[in-house]
Amino acid sequence: MKIHTYEKLWLGAAMVLIVALIATITYGAVGLGISMVDDEEETIDPDALDEDDRFNDPRVEHVGENEYEAYVVARTFMYQPDPIEVPANSEVTFYVTSTDVIHSFSVVGTNINTMVIPGEVSSMTAEFDEPGEYGVVCNEYCGSGHHTMEGQLHVVPEDEFDMTELEVEGDDEVAEDDEVTLNVSVENGMLDDLETTIEAEIGEETFEEDVTVEGDSTYETTITVDAADLGEGDHDWSVTVDDYEDSGTVTVVDDLEDDGGDDDE
Ligand code: CUA
Known about the structure:
With 265 residues, the chain is mostly beta strands. It has three domains: 1-30; 46-160, Immunoglobulin-like (Sandwich); 164-253, Immunoglobulins (Immunoglobulin-like, Sandwich). It has two helices and 18 strands.
């Protein structure tokens, strides 16, 4: 049988096209690491996210030298946390779930893009080499506020990133024969030790304490001053740790009418 030269050419071209098509689809399906959110992934009760250790407090966690995990909750019409803050030169694994309807978690200008389905946890890992600010948008129509659903991902310079949290509790009112007490807690969310100084001012009195807060733990201390030294009246106080500050005012009174609060010895 004789096949015409042109027919051979067309046959060959068709073969090449078919092989190229299959190769393209195969590469798109497995080569790029794209996958569907599927039922084999762990499931989660979308109505009970507040009982889940990861999602009851949406946050970023430090899990290894340059490794972080971000637990993100999508809901109509926002993302939590917002902004999501991570340092440059890091590898971040995002775990995202929804508490209501289907959303997406799409970081503009990156290849981070996933559907977020209530009951399932989508996860993906990305590396951030440089500082930058990215918008997070929702690509799945999720309701009347869909077009307003957005969040922020901030990649901050490494030396500006920390996971310190300062919390101070102080009395509003203290009797003159008692002590003014500030309960200070410094939480260090990083795995490395945090060396810092707690500085405090109560009225004219100043305090300073160098502390080392171990990785992934909280340091607590109490600062006291005799109310009599401050004298009757209002006294401002402030506590600073690195760039964090908390402040308030305590009133020293002659006699405390309701003897409710402080029964320290
Ligand atoms: Cu959420 Cu659209």
